[in-house]
Amino acid sequence: MRRMWMTMLVLVTGCDGIELERLVRQHPPLTRLEPEPAGTNCVHGGHFVRTGLDLNDNGVLDDGEVTVTQYACVTAIPGVLMRVQDEPPGENCTEGGRVYRAGQDANGNDELEDSEVSRQVYGCASSAAVVTRVRPREPLLFPCGENGAVVEAGQDQDGNGVLDDSEVRTTSNLCVLPSEVRLRQSPAPAGAACPTPSTQVDVGTDADADGLFEDEEVMSSMFVCQPLHTLDGNYRVRNAVDLVALEGISRVRGALYFDAGAATEAVLPDLMMVEGALEIVDTSLERVEMPSLRLVGGPLTVARNPALTTLTLGSGSRAPLWVWGDFSLISNPWLPTLAGVSAVLPGNNIVLRDNDALEGGYFTFTSALLGSITLEDNAKLSTLPFRHLEWLGGSLNIIGNSSLSTLTGTVLQKVVGDLVVTDNENLTALSGMPALTSIGGGLRVRDNANLRSVEGMNELTQVGTLEFDRNPALEAAGEFPKLARVTSGMRFNANAVLKDLWGLQKVQNSGFLFIGNNPQLSRLMGFDRLLSLQVLTVENNASLTDLSDLALLQSVEELFVLSNENLLRLDLNALESVTRLFTVTENPRLPTCLAVSLAARVNTGGAPEIRGNDSSSPCD
């Protein structure tokens, strides 16, 4: 035992007389703070923090003694703090990145302690290569017609060397054959298209056939933004801490949801991509700003936010915000303008509904849209917010916008679906679409309290269905000077003061013609060149005395003349055949013999139904 103690004494004293106290004493931890301006590391500024042990005991944390570096960031939300620290390559981030920790400063010491952290988010680096693909564009789609190519680009996230559908981040349409498309890539600095460095993809053709793709042959350029910090998976913002933890993220590889408790402001200047849905629904948010947003990989929904007054998604006129789904702006009663979402370019539908204060702004990049547009119950909307829109692949629904007096606000040429104009109480005419030539579905004009005429669509040549229902002030409904083709039919129903259908003289054939419940309509002038119909219905028009204006009508499959109280004559002198149904009933002043005589001459179908007419008056 004596020998063991002597050995230990030699070890601790040694030849130089080292003191035991110095050997066992711990070196004090030190922290060095430097101000960090607002920017990439801290959105609102803060401190760059270095920590370590004072190994040389000089009272100063030297560079060689630093073991941990991080940023202690202030936030825009009182009482919420954030720490940002580099994350080495490993399990959390394959290529490394950053970790963001946020929480309430519960003890009020202006320092976020480990016990106060309630949300931790990893923002990982991503260096995947940019890949492209070229495919044929659907034929006959605006503006290319028969021939067109779609060029797409994005990061090859799964590393398979192929651009998969889920990896597409930007697209360009060219009116050339796919085999003629030429591409080239080059690095691009941060700018209008991307707030971070990006890959520029130039698209065009070898116009001079010299085997080179030269600058003057570039037809358009696409930019694939390089996300600096990627969060994998869906993210839900439930409170202020969740929001702060997201501030440094540039890409969410999933959906992003804002819930009811998500503070009053959401300012995310670095967020560029949300690769799933983005939903801001049922929140107390007053201000939402995501100026760097360039992509939403699913539907984008902003709905039922009763306090929202400021909404900025994307960079306005500088670059489009691609949305691979619907864009819905619904029930935000205090939002005054679309200026903050003017960059939105959806892949499908646009819905603007029940936004009481909305009256300004427009969609900058929407010239052609595959889906439908619905503008409904926006009390202050006075013009259609699509000043570059030329082609619509779905329907345009304009419903219940009480300040809308005209249909101005587009340069529409073609609507593939319906054009629905319903319940717009201050609309007086259909002016505002002077370039519109074709409506594939129906022009359906209903329940517009002050609509007096349909003037304004002077270039319209084709429509599926022409329909005017329950417009109590409408006096003239035929002012379509170039309309020659109505493929499905025409309906004029329950227009209380309708007197005139003049202007439809170019229409010669159609599916059906329904004229009913128009008490002041006394003539059918406007149909004097109509040759054939599948179904003709003339019902309950109190002022109508004859059908003589259908002077050239030759063939009808089904004929219905019903309950016209002052109808005296039929006068369908050119009619040659009614092939299926012949029905003339309840016209109290129409001599029955006139109906019988006409049926005997033209009816080739089943037994005619003739009843309730004037059986006492003779036929001349």
From TrEMBL:
SUPFAM superfamilies to which the protein is assigned, alphabetical: L domain-like (SSF52058)
The question of whether Signal is a record keyword is answered with yes
Q: Where is this gene product found?
A: Cell envelope
Task: Pinpoint the DUF7151 domain residues.
Answer: 30-73, 81-124, 186-225
* Cited PROSITE patterns: EF_HAND_1, PROKAR_LIPOPROTEIN
Swiss-Prot/TrEMBL keywords: Glycoprotein, Signal
Q: Matching InterPro entries, A to Z?
A: CWI-Assembly_Regulator, DUF7151, EF_Hand_1_Ca_BS, LRR_dom_sf
Q: Know the name of this protein?
A: DUF7151 domain-containing protein
Query: Species name for this entry?
Result: Myxococcus virescens
What does the record give as the organism's lineage? Bacteria, Pseudomonadati, Myxococcota, Myxococcia, Myxococcales
